[in-house]
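Lab notebook, bench 4. The sequencing result for the construct came back, and we need a structural model before the next group meeting so we can plan mutations. Quick request posted to the team channel:

Model the 3D structure of this chain.
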Amino acid sequence: MNNRTLRLSAILFFTLVGIFIIDQNIKSLFVDGFRYYTKCIDLILVYNKGVAFSMFAFLAEYLKYIQLFLVSGVLVYVLYLKKICYAMPVGLLLGGAFSNIYDRFIHGGVVDMVYWHCGFNFAVFNFADVMIDLAVVWILLLNFKPNLCKN
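Done. Here's the predicted structure in token form:
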């Protein structure tokens, strides 16, 4: 394993594990009973059986295996690509994705807790979802602005 691959793997691994641990610790607070209500944001417990906005909930048990396959494919592709500039955003994406998939195996659905209802009702989401969204924007930036990714 050369230095470049080792560096890519380390950044990817530590980012992934860090996001996974942070997200699971936040979720454990809500599974254990924590709740908080305000005028605009409620911190509640919801088990999402689907993906964003509960789509594909009809796939039931198959959904977690489909997601595991797709997310593993992203991991393999980034390791094959060997571009260090993708290590951090893909680590964010995979950390959030694996954490949500883990929820499906342990809780039967993704543990969501942030409910925005100020002015309009928005979907209930979690920290992993925010990290996935951030990662997608970052990856899109890297793809549409190639000068940002020199390696």
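The chain has one domain: 3-148.
Will bring this to the meeting.
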